[in-house]
């Protein structure tokens, strides 16, 4: 894929979340809960997602194209179309994770779900790069940010009496099944409507 094609796959929406990260970090440091607390780690998780999206879709980008080819068995246009990528990422980054961070330890199960999703996502990025035998977009933030946040969040939940080991294991398993289900849904969507995938 040449440079012009790669640049054409880079959407503008990741910039919106990315520019808010410094504001969120400044607030957390100056007025938020302790960073190592469960609540603090949930806020960090919400702030980490735009960084991950920037790696996937901006620098170096190409995640959607790679995912379509290597995982979904499609082409440049789909099954993970620009519109579907936008919807999935907006729901996770701008709705689900901020809502979980807002609830924090008041409703810890929501935050634990989010941390489990980040942990599994980071590990799967690493596995994908390992199987592809090359770096794939999202791997650095996945392994260096998501995985540590997931582990530290689980440890904080245990230390604060918000969950037990069995619950954490169950949530990680559910997060893995959720990722696999999303892949299956996208593959099915690509098979059902191969002719107008690029328009969605």
Please give a handful of descriptors for the protein shown.
mainly alpha, 8 helices, 74% helix, disordered N terminus, disordered C terminus
Describe the fold and architecture.
The chain has 200 residues and is mostly helical. The chain is built from 8 helices and no strands. α6 crosses α8. The chain is globular, with a radius of gyration of 17 Å. The two termini are 22 Å apart.
Task: State the gist of this model.
By secondary structure, this protein is mainly α. The protein contains eight helices and no strands.
Number of H- or I-type helical stretches: 8
Structural class: mainly alpha
As for the number of domains, it is 1
Shape type:
globular
Number of strands: 0
> Alpha-carbon distance between the termini?
22 Å
Please state the CA-atom Rg, rounded to the nearest Å.
17 Å
Series of H and E elements? HHHHHHHH
Largest sheet: none
Helix content: over 70%
The low-confidence runs, each spanning 5 or more residues with pLDDT under 50, are 1-8, 195-200
In percent, how much strand structure appears in the residues?
under 5%
Average pLDDT number: 89
List the helices and strands and how they pair.
Elements: H1 3-8, H2 14-31, H3 38-57, H4 63-71, H5 82-103, H6 108-132, H7 139-159, H8 165-192
Helix pairs in contact: 2-3, 3-5, 3-7, 5-6, 6-7, 6-8
């Amino acid at each position: 894929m040449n440079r012009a094609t790669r640049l054409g796959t880079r959407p503008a929406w990741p910039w919106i979340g990315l520019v808010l990260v410094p504001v969120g970090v400044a607030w957390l440091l100056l007025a938020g809960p302790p960073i190592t607390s469960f609540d603090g780690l949930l806020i960090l998780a919400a702030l980490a997602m735009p960084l991950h999206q920037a790696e996937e879709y901006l620098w170096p980008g190409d995640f959607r194209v790679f995912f379509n080819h290597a995982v979904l068995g499609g082409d440049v246009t789909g099954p993970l179309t620009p519109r579907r990528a936008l919807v999935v990422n907006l729901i996770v980054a701008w709705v689900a994770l901020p809502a979980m961070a807002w609830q924090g330890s008041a409703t810890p199960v929501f935050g634990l779900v989010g941390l489990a999703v980040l942990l599994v996502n980071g590990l799967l990025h690493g596995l994908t790069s390992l199987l592809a035998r090359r770096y794939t977009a999202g791997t650095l933030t996945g392994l260096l940010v998501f995985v540590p946040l997931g582990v530290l969040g689980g440890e904080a939940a245990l230390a604060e009496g918000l969950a037990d080991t069995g619950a954490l294991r169950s949530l990680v398993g559910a997060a893995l099944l959720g990722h696999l289900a999303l892949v299956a849904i996208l593959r099915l969507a690509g098979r059902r409507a191969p002719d107008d995938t690029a328009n969605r």
